[in-house]
Design brief:
alpha/beta, Purple Acid Phosphatase, chain A, domain 2, 5-stranded mixed sheet, 330 residues, 2 domains
Length: 330
């Protein structure tokens, strides 16, 4: 084995996955029926499901690769949410870990419509076995944020980096539980309060008022609110005015504790990047995002890691000239 190909959030885009695996040199093994490479393994960063039109095919491809040993995978927040939506707690109560209301149903509808009956039950059971992160020696993979204090808590609570009981999922889905907070950080990323730092709330793309921003944990040089808070997008204030540039005010060390301090390269998805990878936003010396909005008209991206200790921009595939920006939202 000479390296790993870390593949971004697929979200039901099987045709793009077939194309990317082919470009990376993976071929179907006649014995296992799985894509394989003679010298490399694929690593999937989670979020196989929801939104896209080919979810069964994606699940078939990826599970077959994982089962045959030609790929690894970590859990994404969409896999976790699918488990919570399907899980009654307490058992037989008719109450689910993720509410069955119109908003949540809309978020899960594509998966529920495309993956049904015995197949859905089969893949949900598989989701429950997925690790929350992987440390493969020279390279690390997590869905949204590599945060060792959260990982330490998870290992204390679960005994490992995987769930092994419904009760553990229940604690992870219950606000106020320490396990909930740790899973939120690993699968959705940490946030910083804007209002606590004297900044106004903003309106997101769905016209929801929010007073927290994602933390740029990948920027190891971030020391100010402007550097640390992720507010890329056409956000507005509650009054409808363009959201002002954040001030360069210093941030307390406790809120900078999420910032990755270096070591082995970390690869992650989740953040719906656009266009071609940009330095400091999409990749740094020790971190690289591989989610480039494949299901929104963007590109399904991989990073071809071959033992390097620092991220190399030209190891992204497809190469920059072949990347496309996602279609604007209607």
């Amino acid at each position: 084995m000479t390296g790993y190909d870390i593949i971004g959030d697929i979200h039901g885009c099987a045709t793009k996955l077939d194309g990317l695996l082919g470009e990376l040199g993976y071929r179907i093994n006649n014995w296992t029926g799985a894509y394989w490479h003679p010298k490399r393994q694929a690593v999937f960063v989670g979020d196989l499901i929801d939104r896209g039109p080919e979810q069964i095919r994606v699940l078939q491809i990826v599970k077959r690769m994982v089962d045959s040993g030609s790929a690894h995978i970590v859990m994404g927040n969409h896999e976790f949410n699918a488990i919570a939506y399907a899980t009654e707690w307490p058992d037989g109560s008719g109450t689910f870990l993720r509410a069955h209301n119109p908003k949540k149903y809309g978020q899960h509808r594509d998966f529920l419509d495309q993956v049904t009956g015995v197949e859905r039950a089969h893949y949900l059971e598989w989701f429950k076995t997925l690790p929350l992160w992987l440390d493969l020696g020279g390279v690390r993979i997590v869905h949204a944020c590599w945060h060792e204090p959260s990982m330490t808590l998870v290992k204390q609570e679960l005994g490992t980096n995987r769930f092994n009981s419904t009760e553990q999922f229940a604690r992870a889905a219950t606000k106020g539980n320490p396990l909930y907070d740790a899973i939120e950080i690993l699968l959705k990323g940490p946030e910083i309060s804007l209002t606590d730092h004297g900044q106004p709330p903003y309106m997101d793309k769905d016209r929801n008022t929010r007073d927290k921003a994602r933390i740029r944990w990948w920027n190891e040089d971030a020391t100010t609110l402007r550097d640390l808070a992720e507010l890329s997008g056409n956000y507005t204030t509650e009054a409808g005015e363009p959201y002002p540039e954040l001030p360069a005010i210093p941030i307390d060390e406790s809120e900078r504790s999420f910032v990755y301090g270096g070591g082995a390269p970390v690869f992650y998805g989740h953040y719906w990047r656009q266009g071609s990878p940009e330095h400091l936003l999409d990749w740094t010396k020790h971190t690289a995002c591989v989610d480039f909005s494949a299901v929104k008209g963007g590109t399904l991206v991989a990073y071809r890691w071959s033992g390097e200790t620092e991220i190399q921009h030209d190891h992204y595939l497809p190469h920059e000239s072949d990347l496309v920006a996602p279609k604007p939202s209607a």
